[in-house]
């Protein structure tokens, strides 16, 4: 099964990664930057941490380029230097363990792909950036593609 544009936009949280703030609505074209706080994502568990604007930009970049391992490391570093309540820390650590990305995501995009996607995102050419991701997802073996889609909460490929 090929990965369609809506699934791709949804699995990457396109509204968030496009500018660092935006809403992933039912229709990816109907997003509104004013209505959504990115820290509301994932049930708001990351609001317990005091993020700087620079860190939020890094988070946005990591999401945009599917660099989830880097994102996890950033959150772990933030946890190590933050003074938050124990319950929030445990919740975040459990989330990081549960949301460990599949191995196929670590090598999905080449450095060249990431550079081009970042440039396209910065110019607001989100559709073109997503076409790179879609092409790479469609090049994965079925088993790996299914794992990536399941990681993002979508049913596995069915042919």
What is the total domain count? 2
Q: What would you call the structural class? A: mainly alpha
* Count of helical regions: 9
- Please compute the radius of gyration using only Cα atoms: 16 Å
Question: What overall geometry do the principal axes of the alpha carbons give?
Answer: globular
What's the rounded overall pLDDT mean? Answer: 80
Order of helices and strands: HHHHHHHHH
Major β-sheet profile: none
- Outline the low-pLDDT stretches: 3-11, 13-31
Distance between the termini: 6 Å
What would you say about this model in short?
Keywords: Signal. By secondary structure, this protein is mainly alpha-helical. It has nine helices and no strands.
Jot down its keywords.
single chain; 159 residues; 2 domains
Task: Describe, in plain words, how this protein is organized in 3D.
The chain has 159 residues and is mainly alpha-helical. It has two domains: 41-101; 102-154, no CATH class. It is 58% helix and 0% strand. The protein is built from nine helices and no strands. α3 (53-64) runs antiparallel to α4. It is globular. The protein starts with a helix and ends in an 8-residue tail after the last helix. The relative contact order is 0.15. The model is unreliable at 3-11 and 13-31 (pLDDT under 50). Keywords: Signal. Residues 1-22 form the signal peptide.
């Amino acid at each position: 099964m090929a990965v369609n544009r809506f699934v791709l936009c949804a699995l990457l949280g396109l509204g968030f990664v496009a500018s660092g703030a935006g809403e992933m609505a039912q229709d990816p074209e109907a997003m509104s930057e004013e209505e959504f706080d990115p820290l509301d994502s994932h049930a708001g568990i990351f609001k317990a941490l005091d993020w700087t604007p620079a860190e939020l930009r890094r988070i946005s970049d990591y999401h945009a380029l599917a660099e989830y391992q880097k994102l996890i490391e950033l959150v772990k570093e933030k946890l190590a230097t933050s003074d938050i309540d124990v319950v929030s820390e445990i919740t975040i650590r459990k989330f990081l363990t549960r949301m460990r990305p599949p191995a196929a995501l670590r090598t999905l995009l080449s450095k060249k792909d990431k550079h081009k996607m970042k440039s396209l995102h910065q110019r607001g050419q989100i559709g073109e950036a997503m076409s790179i991701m879609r092409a790479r997802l469609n090049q994965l073996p079925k088993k790996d593609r299914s794992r990536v889609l399941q990681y993002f909460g979508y049913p596995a490929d069915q042919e």
